Amino acid sequence: MAKLLDGRWMEKVGIRKVTPEGALMRVFLIILILSSGLCSFANVRIRVKIENGKTRILSAQHTPSQILSTPLRGKKILRQIPYYIGERFNAGDALYEEYEVSDAEVSLAVQDHLLKQVQNFDKVQSEVRDLVVQGPKENRINLTILGDGYTQAEKEKFFADAKRTTEGLFVGKTFASYVPLFNVYAVFVASKESGIGDGSPKNTAFKLFRSPAGSKRGIMPGDESALERALESSPATDYPIVLANDN
After folding, report:
1. Could you say which of 116, 144, 166 is where a domain stops?
2. Which of 116, 132, 167 is the last residue of a domain?
3. What does R_g of the chain's alpha carbons equal in angstroms?
């Protein structure tokens, strides 16, 4: 049967009496040690374009490791899909790849990209708004809407277009029933010029342009790295949507 021990008996058998303050300090130290252990490892998430045997880094960013006790070993592929999807033409063999590696295993090219990565848009002129929030981003499908060719004066026009696009995605009873599964965010990045390029880029945030000139359907991204960096402003992105401010 357990007995209560007074301080004198504890001293005789070599047991120190623990004060409430001392107990709290020990608990604090244990939590601190455990916390430092859980945060020991970090991963780098990398997005690349692979075409004609060449790999171009679109973006790279540190992300909390999913493996808390040991570092990630090797390359963990998160997504690998065709870069272009053509309706009536050969889209080629270019691939979009997203993967993670541990911080200790990043290549020199990725290290250089992380060091030299410069924002191509003015953070002061960027703004993020929640359009639909149905739950934690970790267990929702997250859509992020960007817009190109919207000047600072057209900021509210962009958010109105983003809202209208969101409403259009879930119109009708069938699609409306899926709204609880989604979060939708809008990220505004100001362009120097209004509209998008025709045959070649204009001075816009992401440099979208029609290709070939005069095309009513083919719109190409001129600065894919800027698009990727803008998406990092969003709370989370599973699928990006880019609106072109063009008639």
Report:
1. 116
2. 116
3. 26
Residue 178 in domain? yes
Per the prediction, the chain carries an average pLDDT of: 77
Cβ proximity of 240 and 231 under 8 Å: yes
- Summarised one tens digit per residue, pLDDT across range 115-152 is 665 544 555 467 999 999 999 999 999 999 999 999 99
pLDDT of residue 141: 95
**Is the pLDDT at 162 greater than 90, yes or no?**
yes
Between the alpha carbon of residue 174 and those of residues 125, 133, 178, 182, the distances in Å are: 37, 19, 8, 14
CATH number of the domain bearing residue 203: 3.40.390.10
Taking only the tens place, the pLDDT of each residue in 79-109 is: 888 887 765 566 678 898 988 888 777 787 7
Domain that holds residue 229: 123-244
Concatenate the DSSP letters of all residues of 118-182 into one string: --SS-GGGEEEEEEE--S-GGGSEEEEEEEES--GGGHHHHHHHHHHHHHHHT-HHHHHTTGGGE
Beta bridge partners of 59: 47
